[in-house]
Every structure is written in C-alpha cells, then in structure tokens.
Amino acid sequence: MAKGWLKAIADTPEIRSAVDVVGLVDVNPSAAKALAEEFGLAEAIVGSDLGDVLTKTSADVVFDVVVPSARHDVVSTALAHGCHVLSEKPMASSIEEGRSLIAQATAAGKVHAIVQNRRFISGIRRIRRLVDSGALGELTAIHCDFFIGAHFGGFREEMDNVLLLDMAIHTFDAARFIADKVPMAVYCHESNPRGSWYAHGAAANAIFEFSDDVTFTYRGSWCAEGANTSWESLWRIIGTKGTLLWDGAETFTAHQVAGTEGFFRPLEAVPVPEPANEAQTHGHASVIADFLAAIQTGGQPETISNDNINSLAMVFAAIESARTRQRVTL
C-alpha cells in the first residue's frame, strides 16, 4: 500500500513539489529501506519507532498506511507530535476509536483525513453530477453489486468481517457521496461461503435506509470466482424520472421517461456529464492533493475524519446487524 502512495507522490508534479518524504517507518525496517531505495529517498530516515522518527525529522505530515488494528496508536502519536494525518481506510477499528481520533485532531488543531480514493474517480463524480442535475428526478434508490475472487494472502485473509471492513466501506462511502443523504439504519446478513479462503465474513448483503426515503442496497463477495465485477461495483441509480446504469468501468446507460402514455412509458437517453473538476478523478493522488490544499488554505478536505466517520458508522452498523440479525440504527 505504501508503494502506491509513494508512486502517487512521485507521479503527480504538484504533489511532488509540495512534499518531501523525510522518513519511512515500518515494524520491519528492511521493508522501509527497500522502499527508500526504490523511490530514491536516500536522505529519508528509516526506523521502526514512529515517535522517534518524528522527533528526528520534525515532520509536518504523517501518511498512515498501517493495518487497521495499529491505526489508533499511529494517528494518536502523529497528532501528539503536531502532525497533520492522512490515513488509509477504515479510519479506526471501532466507532469509539474513531471519535477519539476526531477529538484528538480537534484538540491539536490538525487536519485528519481519510483516503477514500474510490470516490475520487471519474465514474463516481459523473454520477453525482447527473443526480444533482435532476435529470433522473428525485433520487429513490441506489443498488450495488460487488463480486470478485481476490486472493490477497496476508492480513486480510485473517480478518473478521473482512469484506465489510476492508472493502465495502469504499462502496458505502461512494453511495453516501452520490446520494448526499444521511445513513439512518441498516439490515445486513454476513456469511463466509463454502470454499472461502478467508477466515470470516467474505460475503455480505445489506439494505441501508438513507434520509428522504432513499434506499441503498449492497450485495458483495470477495470469494466469488468465475465472473468478476469491476472493483467499483455494478451500479443502478433510480430516480422518480429515470435510471442510470454503470458497470464500474467505462459504460454508462441513462434513460428518463419521455411520455405519459403506454404500459411501459417511452424513454429517451440522458447524457452523463463529465466530471466538474478533472483534478478530482485521480484516486490516491486526488485525495492527497485535496488534503494538502486544506492544510495550505486552512480549509477542510472532502474526506475529513469528522465526516468520514459516517461511512465508518455504516460499516459497524452493518457488522452489528449481521451479528444480531436485527435492524440497526446509526
């Protein structure tokens, strides 16, 4: 994961000119040394203790790319050293830890944001523009399907609630962004299908209630072999006047009702607009740029933690619903 972040920095001129990587920290220092060599960071201090490296470097920003179970300690340490922090998702291993980090960031007067890179892609931005345009009428439902047979190895295959906690949060956050609504409640069924190579929770089906009577459904599996969807899911966005279909890649199909007669009303195609800001469509690089701009201007990044906790709340409410087999309010 750290390699992807360093590549985003190296490949994006405006980020590269704003960021000097002064330290790399890993529980396995040889891994950090290998990254330093790969990216030509000969001057960077390498160590296994974050606090020590922060003291030696006087860094301004920490990019937190650790496993979720280590996140609270890492972010707390960074904030205590006066650093702004951009974290991988999920922002915390519990809602309580998420709230703790928000309080610490507020007390420190530092920007704490989360990498929700999958809302910073062209498809999601285009859908949001179409919904905002009113061409589909009033939004009523969002339906997403995610089915991929992914063999990661490593920590993911040992996690509890692996799909909901490590992957579904991307789709949940994107749906919340597209709908621009507040998640209110969820009913979720979670399973670990026969043949799964994950320890727990490789599949889930969830029904969310958003504000203004908008329904969001999610069907997903990380151990579904034979017909992978896009990593961005398959989407159906329904409004009172029409529907948009997106394959999660390059194909959009949108139609609205064009008449008042007939068993099936006549339809006409609706063009899906291009993103309003192309700079917001480059995934990790766009999140990092948004984060740095907020630090420089004193503003708030789009994925600031006190907003992103709403996406995290969707995940933990779904997990709680699956555990109790009950509808759970957020």
UniProtKB/TrEMBL annotation:
InterPro entries: Gfo/Idh/MocA-like_OxRdtase_N, Gfo/Idh/MocA_oxidoreduct, GFO_IDH_MocA-like_dom, NAD(P)-bd_dom_sf. It holds the Pfam family GFO_IDH_MocA_C3. Residues 124-244 form the GFO/IDH/MocA-like oxidoreductase domain. Residues 17-111 form the Gfo/Idh/MocA-like oxidoreductase N-terminal domain. GO terms for molecular function: nucleotide binding. PANTHER family: CONSERVED EXPRESSED OXIDOREDUCTASE (EUROFUNG), OXIDOREDUCTASE. This is Oxidoreductase.
